[in-house]
Specification:
Layout: H1 19-24, H2 31-45, H3 49-52, E1 53-54, E2 59-60, H4 70-79, H5 91-102
Antiparallel strand pairs: 1-2
Helix pairs in contact: 4-5
Length: about 110
């Protein structure tokens, strides 16, 4: 179920909040998932969000900085998706994807 955005203030940390939140203050169900994906990328790369995104077209360029499994990369990309209706809407969707696509991946 996709819910309508709640109105809000222009509160958010640059780089961690999705573009629509920074521009309009609109908060969607996927807003926290976007911030979580950015946090994961910052932790993986050691770089600030502004160093990982092309600010001209808002495309994330994180793959040149870190190597992750293709499945995990797809999940991160979907969490960072700015197109309405495309990102995960609830955390449970991310957990399901991680369970099905990344569960057998081991870290040495």
């Amino acid at each position: 179920m996709i819910s309508s955005p709640s109105s809000g203030t222009l509160l958010g940390k640059v780089g961690f909040a999705p573009p629509e939140q920074m521009q309009t203050g609109a908060v969607f169900p996927h807003t926290d998932l976007y911030a979580l994906a950015v946090t994961v990328l910052v932790l993986l790369t050691g770089k600030h969000p502004q160093e990982l995104i092309d600010t001209d077209n808002l495309n994330w360029q994180w793959r040149r900085e870190v190597n992750v499994s293709p499945e995990f990369g797809q999940i991160l990309d979907k969490m960072l998706c700015a197109t309405a209706g495309e990102p995960y809407q609830i955390p449970h969707q991310v957990v399901e994807e991680l369970d099905t696509k990344v569960a057998n991946y081991t870290v040495n």
